[in-house]
């Protein structure tokens, strides 16, 4: 079942971050969102969460869909709260007291010690702040969990805790993780979306296998582009030759033929997209 669908979306800030993006997230998907720094990963997560709008296109979510996001940094209003209270704050106010047991179980699963639970968020390390943000997102039992660079500031041990936690989520819970951590993406995802300005690419593969598939596709399209450009050059050369003959002979037929060849070259050049030049930089 599709949880959220994005159709023909584009996003422009000071420059185009992506265009013509269409993809959907289904129950149980575990998606790695990959792009170079500053190329729209966090913005796309906010769009999926309904916190931001795409420049063009549509975003459609399943009715009643619960989406939760673990951003890169805690909101300022949480900094003075304790770790425990910052997580409980994510619960609806009317059930925060009666449902606080869910916070206890969740923090046990994430191996958060009692001493850490009582510390103010502003006094925590970046890694513990990141764990708190994950717990806030997970405690609402979302249908779609969005993670923005979830392994930042985590040591190897805490990354292992995170991976085991994600593996233990309900099967129907979909996860989208924007990350630069290749090993993490390989371990926890089964799909990869490469976000690129001209043509993004979605593969039903974890990161390493998806990257090889992307490189193979780009190489094939690069060869096609070069072949098309050779055809364009040949057509233009032929048109130029016929033009000279037509001018010298006064042949209207050759003038028409020259125009046809030029139009064919223009259309072929316009259709040939050098997407292979969008080399992915991790």
Quick recap:
This protein is of the alpha/beta class. Helices cover 44% and strands 19% of the residues.
CATH architect. name of the largest domain: 3-Layer(aba) Sandwich
Summed up, the helix count is 9
Our count of domains comes out at 2
User: How many distinct beta strands?
Assistant: 9
Uncertain regions: pLDDT < 50 for 5+ in a row?
A: none
Strand content: 15-25%
User: Widest sheet: strand order?
Assistant: 5-6-7-3-8-9
* Helix content class: 40-55%
How is the main sheet built? 6 strands, mixed
**N-to-C terminal Cα separation, in Å?**
31 Å
Q: How would you state the average pLDDT, rounded?
A: 90
CATH fold description of the largest domain: Rossmann fold
The whole-angstrom Rg is 26 Å
What sort of overall outline do the alpha carbons produce when their principal axes are compared? Answer: elongated
- At the fourth CATH level, what is the homologous superfamily of the largest domain? P-loop containing nucleotide triphosphate hydrolases
Q: CATH class of the largest domain, please?
A: Alpha Beta
Q: What structural category arises from helix and sheet content?
A: alpha/beta
Oligomer: single chain
Helix-strand string: EEEHEEHHHHEHEHEEHH
